[in-house]
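Action item from last week, closing it out:
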Amino acid sequence: MAGGHADYSSTPLWKKLGIAPGSRVYLVSPPQDFDRLLTALAPLPPGVSFLRARGSDLDVAVLFVTRASDLARRFPPLVGTIGIAGRLWVAWPKKASGVATEVDQALVQRTGLAAGLVDNKTAAVSEIYQGLQLVRRIKDRPR
């Protein structure tokens, strides 16, 4: 357990989430200790910027939700903010966390598919949150 973050790998959370040097990142309703979790195993790469407001051409967006209504309301606007090769993570409480939630992987996957995104990765975001990464299909990306 490094820095209080139980995990099955030694991969830093920022790397799991696809945060690279120069990434533009937007977080929606992150848990209070998320900054600490991101850098528990290694410092962030150089040039990473965390936006305070939704921007455009984001490299990584992470949406934390517990209610289906929040997912339905907050997800659609985020889809338009990620760049062509950007990734949109949705994180919800794991069943074992004991935190009440209406959200699960199947709901997140259906929501992404309905918006034209596909899921291609899952990761433990914290001891409480599980996340699913959604991206544009390669065939749908401009060449």
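Closing note: Confidence is low (pLDDT under 50) at residues 1-7.
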